[in-house]
Amino acid sequence: MLTLAESGHTAGPLGTADLFAALYFGGLINFKIDEPYWDDRDRVVLSCGHYCPVQYAALALAGFFPVEELKTLRKLGTRLQGHPVRQIDFPGSNYKQLPGIENTGGPLGQGVSVAVGMALAGKMDKKKWKVICIDSDAEQQEGQTWEAYQTAAKYGLGNLTFVIDRNEIQISGNLGEVMPIEPLRDKLTAFGLRVFEINGNNHEEIMAVFEQGKLFPDQPKAVIMKTVAGKGVGFMEGDFRWHGKAPTSEEAEKALWELK
Amino acid sequence: MNLVSDIINVERKATREGFGEAMVLLGRSDKNVVVVTADLGESMRVDEFEKQYPERFVQVGVAEQNMMGISAGLALSGKIPFAVSYAVFNPGRNWDQMRVSVCYTNANVKIVGGHTGISVGPDGATHQALEDIAMTRALPNLMVVAPADFEQAKKATMAIAKHKGPVYLRLTRPKTAMFTTSTTPFELGKAQVLRVGKDVTIFACGGLVYEALLAAEELKGEVEVEVINIHTIKPLDEETVVRSAKKTGKIITLEDHQINGGLGGAVAEVLGEKWPTKMVRMGMRDSFGESGEPEELLAKYGLDKDGVIKVIRKII
């Protein structure tokens, strides 16, 4: 789909495919494909909106919309916008909502606060649904992200889990060189989050960490998920140059062959 | 229009007070109304709401970007959040969050910016929001409302809570003249002809509507001034603007804001396309404010009654 779009982000989505598989196919979240905005659903907030190709793929495979529609990514008139959109459809709006998307994402840090707002609403109304917010490691460089974390801790939002994709790349280089964020675990702990570290390319570890999280019902959780950017494709793995570009058709063919 | 009978001798109260009173009423009538603030609850007059509805009061500390995002999340979960802080921060500091998480999303968030204009006074230029109308007016889906006095602020607050979609409400700090009454009609998007005239029209918003009324009263018999209160700057009541421009053929806009991009800009854009008319924009002329008492500042920058009279005489 990225090749057809001729632009978009490749590395992050490939690195987090295991997470999305666990969410939508491993039973980690409650959802109804025929009622995408069912009140009691769990909310998946994609704060690093540029990861949307993997979420679009997961939603399509889960049955929210036809798989064929994935080919329209970034094309004129598509519901699969270059960055994901959640728009409240008040009368007069002509926007077509892609079902399953919970937030408008792109400018980093914004979804983290939106997720806190949702979790606060859920707590106010004593709802059982939970919020899972996916943010990237470079997103930890945004001040807003930390404003949101401290609020989640203040309000004891046990219904909220941040999953931080620690793939060590960002658009202009390796994260540690652009702007180091370590010691991330200590910082998150200091901000009041219950922190876990896992290998994000291991299905069992992803499933287990959400089970462990249930032991802390009154505290927001942060899962530092180490992943390999561009996972599964040898010539992309760990290379920041694949952060923000799409493969050519030859590259795509090679990549798909490797992934199979 | 049901204004007070004597517009010279009037009581004074701030628009933020009207907002605060309305919030308490709203808290009672709608359980979905939530207040989110960034350490300015008392100054923005939502302290009474906090006392009465603590479970629906969210204090995020000095973090306005987060305040806007949290409000979006609350709105996406069915709440009607009022994001409340000074306008220099809200929407000054969190414009990106307002643009994407609120306006693009069409989230039902009410953004309330206090301490607007040079009428903030002693705090000085850092705290005098003079660009907020321009910043908000540029955004799709967002309604922009600047009530003219205490009673109108109260009514505007009640009305925007009912309106589905994002709204920016512009409030002011000092006690200003109360010239409308509890029975003066108010409808979002509908400009108010407060005084009928044939020689010149003043389109004004916020606290300066009163200065326009005083100027018109003083010139009675000499110049017949039409005074129109544009409390809803977006969407602009184009019909009323064009109708009055056709009638008087001379336009003054008056606002406690930069002349670029604010009410003057909005009126000029409409008339430029539909009925080009001789026009003077009154407001801050591409400069920052400074410390001083509100009335001293309005006099210095020519935005009080006397300043308005000078401009009327020039344009006539």
UniProtKB/TrEMBL annotation, chain A:
Transketolase N-terminal domain segment(s): 5-252
InterPro entries: THDP-binding, Transketolase_N
UniProt-recorded name of the protein: Transketolase N-terminal domain-containing protein
Pfam families reported for this sequence: Transketolase_N
Annotated organism of origin: Candidatus Collierbacteria bacterium GW2011_GWA2_42_17
Annotated family: Belongs to the transketolase family.
Source organism, top-level taxon: Bacteria
UniProt keyword list: Thiamine pyrophosphate
Cofactor section: thiamine diphosphate
TrEMBL record, chain B:
Keyword Ribonucleoprotein on entry: no
Keyword terms of this UniProt record: Thiamine pyrophosphate, Transferase
Cofactors: thiamine diphosphate
CDD domains attached to this UniProt entry: TPP_PYR_DXS_TK_like
TM segment ranges: none
Pfam family, one: Transket_pyr
Protein name, UniProt field: Transketolase, central region
